[in-house]
Specification:
heterodimer; A: 117 residues; seven-stranded mixed sheet; four-stranded antiparallel sheet; 11 strands; 0% helix; globular; B: 117 residues; mainly beta; six-stranded mixed sheet
């Protein structure tokens, strides 16, 4: 099956802990994205990556970190510096990154719901 | 419509009726638009897209209309079914640092479509 997978589906964190959310895609897409969604709200961009070994801050990057060591993977770490991390986290990918090949459409994974205890 | 706090605008329709979901976008320079459907607890699912050189595009049971003069986008769903019940988001592509091809989407706050049997 081709697609985007996120794990875990549910994650619980104690205050002061860092946690890492996994995002993997086997679509051969160049670009990957992390969004945060709060109840009844739209998606806000945390980080994005147009190509391997490169990434940029989105609109709400404070308290988060990412890496893009492989094309297929774009893990997100929620650090203890993020004061209100409880939210639904969505990963997406799109064919066209900095290479400008393919379409702009973003395809989403199933999401990870993070709750701080 | 406008979202107020955590309350999504809601469109309630009878099964079998046509639905029209509206979206106002912010950037007159945006040249690509996408409609997504998000069911509860899941990631957004691509429905249909349109480029700014078009004013209408049709898919299976769905039609997207683009009015660039007033920066307005609409999604029409024909013969609405209970399975269409979800939150619908519009998104516009924002230009950025890499020659206009950053794939950075700006999402609206969403409209909840409730289909009554």
């Amino acid at each position: 099956d081709g697609g985007i997978t996120q794990s875990p589906k549910y994650l619980f964190r104690k205050e002061g802990q860092n946690v890492t959310l996994s995002c993997e895609q086997n679509l051969n897409h160049d670009a990957m994205y992390w969004y945060r969604q709060d109840p009844g709200q739209g998606l806000r961009l945390i980080y994005y990556s147009q190509i391997v070994n490169d990434f940029q801050k989105g609109d709400i990057a404070e308290g988060y970190s990412v890496s893009r060591e492989k094309k297929e993977s774009f893990p997100l770490t929620v650090t203890s510096a993020q004061k209100n991390p409880t939210a639904f986290y969505l990963c997406a990918s799109s064919p066209r990154g900095r290479k400008l090949v393919g379409t702009d459409t973003q395809y989403f994974g199933p999401g990870t719901r993070l709750t701080v205890l | 419509g406008e979202s107020v706090g955590l309350h999504l605008p809601t469109l309630s329709v009878q099964e079998g009726d046509n639905s029209i979901i509206n979206c106002a976008y912010s950037n007159s320079a945006s040249d690509y638009f996408i409609w997504y459907k998000q069911e509860s607890g899941k990631g957004p699912q691509f429905i249909i897209d349109i480029r700014s050189n078009m004013d209408k595009r049709q898919g299976q049971r769905v039609t997207v209309l683009l009015n660039k003069t007033v920066k307005h986008l609409s999604l029409q769903i024909a013969a609405t079914q209970p399975g269409d019940s979800a939150v619908y988001f519009c998104a516009e592509l924002s230009d950025g640092l890499y020659g206009g091809a950053t794939n950075k989407l700006i999402f609206g706050t969403g409209t909840l479509l409730a289909v009554q049997p």
